[in-house]
Design brief:
5-stranded mixed beta sheet; 5-stranded antiparallel beta sheet; 13 helices; alpha+beta; about 15% strand; rod-shaped
């Protein structure tokens, strides 16, 4: 599939409308609401049970205190023979006391005789003066405490439990009445076992608080997710721009959290993609130009020979030009292949221990003819001493060869090339300096880029491919070294590379 087809397919995918999707805010809020609901259920249930138990304990304690107090009062005021429903002022006072206490503690308190029949209760407090008997009470007249409870009250002195009376569930607190050393009856307090008003009030407050907490959480999550989603939306927009070939879009970064780091990394990636795209375009343009120029010349000369435009006595001259152009194309293709292999990591490095000084001298010998033709003086050879290094000999040979080839090309007639080799503790530094027109300062930072030519300032090199120094940089960096250039911009240029004595590659890619 062609690149244009892939881009079209990607654009169609990006433009397809999604019928339904859950955004990040909805996911965050639903997750929080679910967790909050679980916590609310657990906390609410725990609080409900705790408050209800606490309320029951408090009510039971209150009932026990009041039944004990009433029991002592009845035992003091009523003799054993008067434990009946016959009217007396004391009995009326007891009934009024029962009414007051029952109302204040929201319970039903009454006094039973020895058989469990109710004789004093709050409803009988209104008995008329000098009546023969206490007034009747329909509720308590039908009520009778069971023998099982009475027996335990008389044996233990008191009972606290839940029981069912008149089809209702009650808390029952009963205490025996002792008068003149004789058990004459019992004081019984009944309270509803249902949830108390206090419990519902507290639970209602809890629910209202939880509701407002949920609203506050909704607002907080909204702004939190908004701050999180905004850079992601920008990234989504940026990827769509990238898919259309526009790498100029950048994300606005705020803060210093992980999202800000992601945004910076994304912008760095966009910068790299933009640079890569520019390099790719420049690469295609330069390759096209480098291939087109010699091919046009070759085609023109050959056509001229074939159609007779070029006379026979000139054909050999132009065939030599064609041969030179073919060799130039061959060198360009070889350089591009080497560059491609190095960048893709397909080059297998074979380091060995050898004398770098000897290698430099052997490379200079290959340029002997060109050096003699331009009458170039070679300086610094007498200062070279055996210097051993562990590296790939072929790669370092190619790098030094390219530097000397560059120096020979741009050295003026009658000029000089100076070679310097310096050993440090763990590194070896090699400098190659040549006279001639220098390199402008603004171009020094670009000369190691592929296909870059300093044609304006060093126009002597009309046939270079602009790959030689780039390959030097790749090969030196593959060995963990570094290379740089210096120039006064007028009279000379100097190229220096530094290599570790022991092989330590840092520029190596995995094979795919």
């Amino acid at each position: 599939m062609a690149v244009s087809d892939k881009l079209k397919k990607l654009r169609r995918q990006l433009s397809v409308a999604v019928p339904f999707r859950t955004n990040i805010f909805t996911k965050y809020f639903l997750t929080f609401a679910f967790v909050f609901f679980i916590l609310l259920t657990v906390l609410g249930s725990s609080l409900f049970i705790f408050v209800n138990d606490y309320s029951d304990d408090m009510q039971t304690t209150l009932l026990k205190e009041n039944t004990e107090s009433i029991s002592q009062t009845v035992g003091t005021m009523i003799s054993p023979k008067d434990m009946n429903k016959k009217y007396s002022l004391e009995k009326t006072l007891i009934c009024e006391t029962l009414s007051t206490i029952s109302t204040s503690i929201d319970a039903d308190i009454f006094v039973c005789d020895i058989d469990g029949n109710v004789i004093f209760c709050s409803e009988r407090a209104g008995t008329e003066l000098f009546s023969s008997t206490l007034s009747s009470c329909r509720k308590h007249d039908e009520l009778k405490i069971g023998d099982n409870i009475l027996s335990r009250v008389y044996e233990q002195g008191s009972v606290v439990e839940k029981t069912r009376l008149l089809n209702y569930q009650y808390f029952i607190v009963a205490r025996s009445v002792v008068s003149e050393g004789i058990v004459t009856g019992s004081v019984v307090a009944l309270a509803s076992t249902g949830f108390q008003t206090l419990v519902f009030d507290i639970f209602r407050i809890f629910l209202v608080s939880a509701f407002f907490c949920l609203i506050l959480a909704f607002i907080c999550i909204y702004y939190l997710t908004k701050s999180m989603v905004k850079p992601l939306q920008q990234m989504s927009k940026a990827t769509k721009q990238f898919a259309m070939g526009d790498f100029t879009y950048r994300i606005k970064i705020h803060g210093s959290d992980e999202l800000a780091d992601l945004g910076r990394a994304f912008n760095d990636m966009a910068e790299a993609l933009d640079m890569l795209e520019g390099t790719r375009r420049s690469f295609v343009s330069n390759v096209s130009h480098e291939l087109k120029t010699p091919m046009t010349s070759i085609a023109g000369f050959i056509d001229g020979i074939l159609d007779g435009t070029i006379p026979k006595d000139k054909q050999e001259y132009y065939l030599n030009i064609v041969s030179a152009e073919v060799r130039r194309l061959s060198r360009l293709v070889v350089s591009m292949l080497n560059m491609s292999k190095i960048e893709s990591g397909d080059v297998e490095m074979k380091p060995s221990n050898y004398d770098l000084s000897e290698q430099i001298i052997n490379i200079l010998l290959t340029f002997e003819q060109k050096i003699s033709e331009k009458n170039i003086e070679i300086r610094g050879l007498d200062g070279l001493k055996p210097s051993y290094i562990v590296a790939d000999p072929d790669m370092i040979y190619q790098a030094i060869y390219n530097l000397f080839d560059n120096a020979v090309k741009f050295t003026n007639d009658g000029g000089y090339i100076e070679v310097t080799l310096t050993e440090h503790n763990s590194e070896i530094e090699v400098s190659i300096k040549n006279s001639g027109e220098g390199i402008k300062e603004e171009e020094l930072s670009h000369i190691f880029e592929r296909f870059y030519k300093v044609d304006k300032s060093r126009s002597l090199d009309a046939k270079g491919s602009g790959l030689g120094l780039y390959i030097v940089k790749l090969m030196i960096e593959m060995h963990g070294g570094r290379v740089f250039a210096e120039s006064d911009g007028v009279k000379a240029a100097k190229f220096t590379f530094i290599l570790p004595k022991q092989f330590s590659p840092i520029y190596k890619k995995e094979k795919k």
